[in-house]
Amino acid sequence: MANHDRVNERYYGEINSEDSHEATRTRVHWMCRETTGKRILDVGCSQGITSILLGREGFRVTGVDLEEESIRYAQEELAKESKPVRNHVDFRMLDITQWKARTTFDTVLLGEVLEHFAHPETLLLQIHRLLGEEGTLIVTVPYGYHPFYDHKQTFYASNLAMCLLPYFEVLKLEVHHKYLCCVARKHQKIQLDVKPPLNQVLDWMKLDHTHFEEVEQQHLRSMKQRKKALDSAVDQLKRLRRQENEEG
Predict the structure, then answer these.
(1) What is 7-194's CATH superfamily?
(2) Which domain of life is it from (predicted)?
C-alpha cells in the first residue's frame, strides 16, 4: 500500500483540520527558510509543494519520489506555474538510494522520510554523496510516537541526532507542531565512531524534557475535560432515571 501523502492538499487547506493546515504550512515554510545555496534536492517530495515554493524564489530544485501518483500530481501542479518557475523545478519518479547521478546539491530536503526507513544509513550514505562541500541537510520527522503503518522509527531529539552524526554535524534541532526539525552540515569524511560532546547531549535532553512536559500537561487537561463531560453525562442520566421513577 502506498503512503499517498497529500501534503499540497493540507497546505492549501483542502483536507483535514485547521490544526493540520497550520502544522503543514509551518513545517514547509521552516524548510524553505533553512534552505541554502541554489541547487536543491527534495527527497520524498510527495505532491511537490516545497519544491514549487522554492522554485518561485529562484532556486533550482529537483524533486524525487517513489510514488507515481504523487509525481503526476506534482507535475500537474507545476504546469499551473509561470514559465520561470517551471524552468526551475524538475520532478522525477525514482529510488533515491539507487540514483547514480554525479550532480551535487547545496541543500537536500528530507521532509517526513527518515521514519519510513528501518535502515536509515542506506539513505544517509547516498545523501552524503549527493551533497556538495559543506552542504546542508534539512530533516523533519514526526516527534515521538505517531501511529502509522509505515513508520519504522520513532524519533526523539537524541536518537535523530545520533542517527545523523556519522555523516553530518547537527546545527539546529527544533520542534514545530509535533515535528522534530533539524538542520545539519555535511562532514567531509564519514565518522562512524563520532561521539557528541556532553553539553550537546544535555541540550537534546532538555529539548525532549520541555516538549514532553508540555505533552503531559495537554494530556492532563484533556483528561480533566473528559472527566467533567463524563460526570455531567452521569448526572444527567441519574436525573432522567429519577424522573422516570417519579412518573412511574
Answers:
(1) Vaccinia Virus protein VP39 (3.40.50.150)
(2) Bacteria
Determine which of 20-34, 35-49, 206-220 has the lowest per-residue pLDDT on average: 206-220
β-pairing, 168-176 with 179-186? antiparallel
Q: What is the distance between the alpha carbons of residues 50 and 91, in angstroms, rounded to a whole number?
A: 12
Who's near 86: CB < 8 A, 6+ residues apart? 55, 78, 79
**CA angle centred on 212, ends 209 and 216, rounded to 5°:** 130
Q: Look at residue 1 and tell me whether its pLDDT is greater than 70.
A: no
Helix 18-34, helix 49-56: angle, nearest 10: 50
**What cell numbers appear for 140 in the block?**
523533519
- Predicted TM-score of the model (pTM): 0.90
Q: Apex CA 128: angle with CA 125 and CA 132, to 5°? A: 160
How is the chain split into domains, by residue range? Answer: 7-194, 197-247
